[in-house]
Amino acid sequence: MIKFELENYLADLEYLVNIDSNASDKQGVEKIATFFKQKFSKNGWFIKEHYASTSLGPCVEISNTQDEQYDLLLMGHMDTVFEVGTAGKRPFRISGKRAYGPGVTDMKSGDLIGAYVMDILENEQALAPLKICLDLNPEEEKGSKHVRQWLENLSMRSKYVIVLEHARGDNEHVQARKGLGRYTLKFKCIAAHAGNNPELGRSAITEMAYWIGKLTALTDFAEGFTVNIGTVAGGEAANIVASEADMVVDLRLVRLEQEQKFNDCISELKEHAQKKEVKIEVSGGITRPPMFVTAETEIFMTLVNNVSESLAMPCKWCKAGGGSDGNFSAALGIPTIDGFGPLGGSAHTDNEYLEVEAIEPAAKLLLEIVKKLRQKLYNL
Ligand SMILES: [Zn+2]
Fold first, then answer.
1. Closest by CA position to 184, among listed 280, 276, 323, 289
2. Structure confidence by residue, pLDDT tens digits, 133-164
3. How far, in Å, from the CA of 201 to the mean position of ligand 1?
4. Ligand 1 midpoint to CA 165 (Å)
5. How many Å lie between the centroid of ligand 1 and the Cα of residue 216?
6. Ligand 1 midpoint to CA 247 (Å)
7. pTM of the predicted model, to two decimals?
8. What phi, psi does 215 have (nearest 5°)?
9. 3-state class (DSSP) for residue 265
10. 372 to each of 52, 65, 74, 156, 322, how far by Cα in Å?
């Protein structure tokens, strides 16, 4: 059996972390893509890539098959939230038991685990006939807007999805993530002099306040459904009945049906506005559907639990508030689990870290999950 080479892994991770790769830094993301393409285009592996936008790095698919259908899709992303120059200011370093640097845990370490595990299994000849693919997204941190269709298409062609975002907290994996909606509401009303003829005006601010009250009241913490009015702006001067106002709303949901609750409320509020003779424009929608556990996901989780118990590393699961690309695959009904990159924390901050001792166990767990899946699907 080929051993996991931690020193090689750390050298590769250092190389990747020291390349800035904000999604808007096309060249940086391309360098990350080139690393994976060069490293893993051996062994007869297949690399597909395309550009979803001229301003972004490539969408990369690395797999052991030319078949369009995959048994298992491993999801990763190449971009980080950090601006160009960050890696120069605080490059990869190991201090004590932790590694630091931009993107060290979100999620260059996870991408690398996926690639290493595929490599080890290939060398062990323990992969075929299982059809596996690692996808590398160039703009996850920007919400995957341009690549969503590609990710959904990939998901539809896959039986199972494992997202390689980092494990968190007490080495927990992620079984569910909230969905996200983003809306902009513009109120266009009638201006009037506040002293001379206020009765002729229709205040955009008064109407917006009414909407804020109704929308905020939809929040149900127990249900995991929240409406947050993130920003408001409006009005011209204290002595004018405001003719314009607008606000931006953030919606979080755990089930897709919950969107209806929001839409119904908007419809009622539009009727109210019509009666008041004011105009409202609502734009936006659900940008990431919620990732939730289906009966099929539960079966997949049981397989993972059995593997982890056999390794004496019992699995812990959690629900996360933030989204990942797993939201897209889960919403399409593809069994999806997340958080199988090595344990880390403080993502998106200067203190972002990776637990070095968690790297090998994460590789081992993923490797055994893949083997088990191969056994299940092909009776091997
Ligand atoms: Zn991430």
1. 280
2. 999 999 999 989 999 999 999 999 999 999 99
3. 48
4. 6
5. 29
6. 28
7. 0.88
8. -70, -40
9. helix
10. 34, 19, 15, 22, 29
